[in-house]
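Changelog-adjacent note: as of this version, every example in the card shows the full chain rather than a window. The one below runs 257 residues end to end.
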Amino acid sequence: MKKVQKALLVLLRAGLWESRIEDLSCFPMSAGEWKNLYLLSRQQTVTGIVFQGIQYLPEHFLPAEELLVRWMAETDAIERKNMQMNKVLDLLVQWFTESGVQPVLQKGQGIASLYENPLLRECGDIDFYFDSRQMFEKAFSLIRQCGLREKVQADQSVTYAWKGVEVEHHTCLLDLHNPFLQRYAKELEQQYGYNHMRLEGGLDVRIPSPVLNLLLQSLHILKHALGWGIGLRQLCDMARSCYKLHDEVESEEMKYP
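Full-length structure tokens:
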């Protein structure tokens, strides 16, 4: 498996940065090794990015046609799911905006926009943050009026399905359980504020500013590290974010005073 893991990382780097293969020493691989690599990429939710990396392999190192077609079909499904996610996001933001509600898009498609090919990043759900209790309650009232089956989580977040896509509403931007740090987190929100991202439908949605974006992802990774473990997709997200946002963030800003 060490050879398979090495090949996975080599192809992932090539796909993530859309660059040539750095190290071909783990190729060629047997049919069994390729199958394990495919399954591992799916487990780590980086199937599309790794497939992009395969495009940079010399032809004589490619996997068997049967697996390659299967991989291509899976990547196509990821792209289609992203396009559906973008449509739902457009509709939701339009609905909220027309109702006087201004959500903040957390992670998800906001981070995908930092990729060379956003459609290759596997999407999950849509996470919205509302920066006041009044705005959160108004959004909650709207989804209830539509008869959606919402579920209130232990942390007071609300989840529901909209046109087949899972949506979550949050009352906290930065996932901090320490009550002594929550006030500090709110001060950071007020200090750094939000940027805007243009959606495919032409509307703008608020997203965390670069400093808040990086903090949000760092806390998310820490949470995973202490719980279910960190996946390669989270690390890819952070790598792309650091690459695209490094000119907008001073290193000193990321240090806790």
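Structural remarks: DSSP finds nine helices and seven strands in the chain.
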